[in-house]
Amino acid sequence: QSALTQPASVSGSPGQSITISCTGTSSDVGIYKYVSWYQQHPGKAPKLMIYDVSNRPSGVSNRFSGSKSANTASLTISGLQAEDEADYYCCSYAGSGKKVFGTGTKVTVL
Amino acid sequence: QLQLQESGPGLVKPSETLSLTCSVSGGSISSSDYYWGWIRQPPGRGLEWIGSIHYSGGSYYNPSLKSRVTMSVDTSKNQFSLNLMSLTAADTAVYYCARDMGTTRFDYWGQGTLVTVSS
């Protein structure tokens, strides 16, 4: 069970849109519609931003959206704001109750 | 509002067993709709799912840790626990407990507790 692959860093200017990729395999991302995304600010617990590929929990801004194609899931942040600067992790179901997280992406707002 | 709080030792010696407890308030751990999970994060590194347990006792563990992990639930105290055996320095991490909706949806998290493995 290897970690899902994410870019180490992504950056953008305020107001721009950025997309973070999360690449897995046909045993996790490619086969299940259970991919979630978490935002983590320094020293804080992760916060659920997207679940089941594209669903937003109550209270999460609609600037955050998720999608999936084949073995790769994506998180898009539109209208980038300073408060979006954080680490982001994807997580996929891998069958038989198992879950696997991504390697993490640091988002920098320029 | 559901709240989770981890408790346990901050320093453990190599080869010993780590025991952590997560206390749940504002809701019942005995709901059939949820699992209860443990996730850890080594300093400066990414998240790693350790395992999840249902109040009925059913559990799932990360295959890479399965031989060293045991989880349990105490419904009378509204708590669940993690035991991790044969510790090494590689087990040094912040350990989080979280409510697990059963797929990859961890919707409530504890604040995390740093565990250092060192002699």
Summarize the structure in words.
The complex is a heterodimer of chains A (110) and B (119). Chain A is mostly beta strands and 110 residues long. Chain A has strands at 9-12, 18-23, 35-40, 47-50, 64-69, 72-77, 86-93, 99-101, 105-109. Chain A is 0% helix and 44% strand. In chain A, strands 1, 3, 4, 7, 8 and 9 form a six-stranded mixed sheet that branches. In chain B, strands 2, 4, 5, 6, 9, 10 and 11 form a seven-stranded mixed sheet that branches. In chain B, strands 1-3-8-7 form a four-stranded antiparallel sheet, with no helix packed on it. In chain B, β4 and β5 form a beta hairpin. Classes of the chains: A mainly beta (110), B mainly beta (119). Chain A binds chain B through residues 1, 3, 32, 34-36, 38, 40, 45-48, 51-52, 57, 89, 91-93, 96-104, and chain B through 39, 45-49, 52, 60, 62-64, 96, 101, 103-107, 109-112.
List keywords for this structure.
heterodimer; A: 110 residues; mainly beta; 6-stranded mixed beta sheet; 0% helix; 44% strand; globular; B: 119 residues; 7-stranded mixed beta sheet; 11 strands
Please sum up the structure shown.
With 110 residues, chain A is an all-beta fold. Chain A has strands at residues 9-12, 18-23, 35-40, 47-50, 64-69, 72-77, 86-93, 99-101, 105-109.
Number of helices of chain B: 0
Query: What's the pLDDT, averaged over the residues of chain A?
Result: 97
Uncertain spans of chain A: none
Number of strands of chain A: 9
How much strand of chain B?
A: over 45%
Q: Quaternary state, please? A: heterodimer
**What is the average per-residue confidence, as pLDDT of chain B, rounded to a whole number?**
96
Radius of gyration of chain B: 13 Å
- Helix/strand-derived category of chain B reads mainly beta
Cα radius of gyration of chain A in angstroms:
13 Å
Terminal-residue CA separation of chain B? 39 Å
* Series of secondary-structure elements of chain B, N-terminal to C-terminal: EEEEEEEEEEE
Largest sheet features of chain A: 6 strands, mixed
